[in-house]
Amino acid sequence: MKTLILNADESSIALAGKIIREGGLVAIPTETVYGLAANALDKDAVGGIFRAKGRPQDNPLIVHIASSEAVRPLVTDMPDEALRLADAFWPGPLTMVLPRSELMPDNVTAGLDTVAVRCPSSGIAREVIEEAGVPLAAPSANISGRPSPTEAVHVLNDMDGKIGLIIDGGRCEIGLESTVFDVRRRCVLRPGGISGAQIKAVIGDIDDFSRHDDSVPRSPGMKYRHYAPKAPLTVLRGSIGQAVAYVMARPAAERAGVLCFDGEEGLFAGAFTVPYGKESEPAELSRNLFGALRTLDGAGLDHIYSRLPENTADVCALLNRLNKAADLYIEL
Ligand code: TXA
Ligand code: MG
Questions:
Q1: Ligand 1, closest atom to CA 178?
Q2: Radius of gyration for the chain, computed over Cα atoms and rounded to the nearest angstrom
Q3: Of the ligands numbered here, which is closest to the C-alpha atom of 100?
Q4: Which stretches of the chain score pLDDT less than 70?
Q5: ∠ CA 26-27-32 to the nearest 5 degrees?
Q6: Is the pTM of this model over 0.70?
Q7: For residues 193 and 122, is the Cβ–Cβ distance under 8 A?
Q8: Most-buried pick from 22, 69, 272, 331 (CB within 10 A)?
Q9: What residues does the ion ligand 2 have nearby, CB within 5 Å?
Q10: Number of Cβ within a 10 Å radius of residue 329
Q11: Is 101 exposed, middle or buried (0-12, 13-18, 19+ CB in 10 A)?
Q12: Is the separation of the CB atoms in 33 and 176 below 8 Å?
């Protein structure tokens, strides 16, 4: 199958809607990452998503809607907390896990009695949903386990020949996936664009991801190794001086890459460095992380190193993704 990349405009969005109505797959931009979308009400179309990504069947998908009201037919109950969260954060990077209705095919929810729903703030994503006329099941548009795509070319690298159409909406604004929040359990399953503190400000105390022991997976998708570049990744916690000394002490023949902060490029002599933003700018680091991991991947390295940013509430999602991608964690 030939994979087309088209800029987002009226005719490409009309084509995307047509392909989805006919049971096909289209990659679309959202404010978080690119999604691989199909008609969420069509189990065969949804099956195509799992095949294209090589995704384990026990990992459920997020269903995307174009307006808050569209959640009603998908769920059996919309608790008061969910209504308030929808008012506060939809459209936007919050996914809510709610009791599923009979409309949801089993493969969307991986047989669970809940469904994850989100209304994206990306205008292009919502136009495609409107055009298709159905809710869209859409996981991140990467091959399972690889970094999520934040540009159309990343999608092409993973999905070339497997899907008919990629809608190019430029670079994703946030760059990390949505926050997944289980409304009944009042628990953050995956940290993301909306922080635990923002959720607490709307509905009161919740089980925040900041207290979470990362060794126990909370949502099915969190038990798999994720976001991983091809070369092993070692994350380092410590000062820049300690990190430089650690990387310099590596075996002489090792082709090393360093995912570093702006201004640190020259410090790791002999290593291939990829700066991804200022340490003090978590939003910028988040936006650039997955693209930087893909750049490192393309450089034919034996090993990648990355010093973690300071642990503040703002970097919760970023630290989560780096730790998930890592093979080894070293406290310097
Ligand atoms: O920002 C995002 O959320 C992006 C864009 C495309 O919207 N999508 C995304 O989807 O990241 P995906 O499939 O890569 O991640 C979905 C996560 C997985 O960790 C999955 O296990 C969890 O949501 N999930 C989905 N349905 C669930 C459910 N019913 N209960 C618990 N976790 C669920
Ligand atoms: Mg994903």
A1: 1
A2: 20
A3: 1
A4: 209-226
A5: 145
A6: yes
A7: no
A8: 272
A9: 140
A10: 14
A11: middle
A12: yes
Angstrom distance (rounded) from CA 254 to CA 79: 55
Rounded to 5 degrees, what are φ and ψ at 311? -80, 95
Other CB atoms within 10 A of residue 98 CB: 22
Q: What Å distances lie between residue 234 and 243, 250, 298, CA to CA?
A: 11, 12, 17
CB 236 within 8 A of CB 243: yes
Distance 142 CA to ligand 1 centre (A): 13
Amino acid, single-letter form, for residue 59: N
Ligand with an atom nearest the CA of residue 226: 2
Ligand 1 pocket: which of 180, 214, 227 to mutate (most atoms within 8 A of CB): 180
Q: How far apart are CA 178 and CA 127, in angstroms?
A: 19
CA distance 45 to 95: 22
Atom of ligand 1 nearest to the CA of 192: 1
CA 308 from centroid of its chain's CA atoms = 19
Output the pLDDT for position 225: 63
pLDDT digits (tens, 9 = 90+) for 85-133: 999 999 999 999 999 999 999 999 999 999 999 999 999 999 999 999 9
Closest to 305 in 3D by CA, of 317, 314, 292: 292
